[in-house]
């Protein structure tokens, strides 16, 4: 009962490509379980480098993303970190953001062509990641010894004081804020998800700095948003027959192991570590996307760049992206190991005293 | 609050979920070509890859969770506080207040 596959759509799987997808899935899952998002930005270009067509890579990636987010969300819900209500409110407004983002992309594509669209995507990547990632990184570095952010009236605290109907209470996050401040955060998350496929890079910082949730709750709640949006996106892609189930389940094999380990990690380390990992990954990815900008400027005829230079920059861009993810994974595993050792020592001392 | 699983329980569950996960993966890759072709027909066939990933996330997710527990990698409960050492309560004596 052998059936020949459409070779234009489905690649032949080799052992090395299976191992590559499993490892990237594991690392991506680990980072997602810890900071709420990540991994997707390496998986899509990673699959394309194996010869998978762009649409199949995006669809197969999305089809692995929502079950991974579901498993991570359930795990972190058990640790009391997920605010389901906040996640659903954000997911609804993010859904609208995605639609607007797609429309905007189409408009740019029609007006400036594929290179213009690619340039817009890369510039959005660089601008958002440098600004937001830089701030997240700064906040993590200025946190106190216990990993808590420094004291002082934050933007979120000021917004929470404004009583604009309808007010919403998010119990797990411990926040009461007007719905009119949650909608723009969700909307921006959706817009970014439609543009650069990683909405969490705006969603998590937005929930922390605009809504006022802790880093722990924000990163856990992002998994609910990723699940809802991923499921919606997958239904759309699967109805067009773009999911390669073999790629999806291989990535899932690694990412389900990683996402649970990342979720366990959040209970062991200081809260500022989540921000540190997120900020660092965002800044490294910004460098990677920045390297792609000259290529699109050259294609639009704005800049002269030799094709060899473009090829080198393309490779460097992908390698730096992989490095961002690996760096995040190493920091997470390293800090988990350190925290486990410190906790074990603390428990031994407490046991000795008791 | 859910009781904490022992390592032995986790190993048993890991083997169970692991066998189920291996069976699901074995079936997908043994029939990989017809499955991939059928799952990419679009329309109502979209339900198939979605149902499959839910199944995989249950069996393989269960395996992964128990694997980490079996390896002794557990979450630290935030509300963990040490119970004060139990002191012997004075014995209650029956008294007659007549």
Features:
heterodimer, A: 354 residues, mainly alpha, two-stranded antiparallel sheet, 12 helices, 77% helix, B: 98 residues
DSSP helix fraction of chain B: 55-70%
Give the number of DSSP strands of chain B.
0
Count of alpha and pi helical runs of chain B:
3
List the total number of helices of chain A: 12
Strand content of chain A: under 5%
- The pLDDT mean of chain B sits at 85
Task: Report strand order across the widest sheet of chain A.
Answer: 1-2
- Content-based structural category of chain B: mainly alpha
- How many runs of DSSP E, i.e. beta strands of chain A? 2
Query: What Rg of chain B is obtained from the alpha carbons, in whole angstroms?
Result: 25 Å
User: How many domains in all of chain A?
Assistant: 1
**What is the assembly state of the chains in this entry?**
heterodimer
Order of helices and strands of chain B: HHH
User: What is the largest interface, and how many residues per chain?
Assistant: A-B, 48 and 40 residues
Order of helices and strands of chain A: HHHHHEEHHHHHHH
Major beta-sheet overview of chain B: none
Distance between the termini of chain A: 67 Å
Shape of chain B: elongated
Q: Unreliable segments of chain A (pLDDT under 50, ≥5 consecutive)?
A: none
Q: How would a crystallographer describe the biggest sheet of chain A?
A: 2 strands, antiparallel
Mind explaining what this structure looks like?
The complex is a heterodimer of chains A (354) and B (98). Chain A has helices at residues 15-35, 40-49, 54-78, 84-141, 155-161, 179-196, 200-211, 215-239, 245-268, 271-290, 293-299, 307-353; strands at residues 167-170, 175-178. With 354 residues, chain A is mainly alpha-helical. Chain A has one domain (15-335). A two-stranded antiparallel ribbon of chain A has the order 1-2. The longest helix of chain B has 24 residues, at 7-30. The two termini of chain B are 46 Å apart.
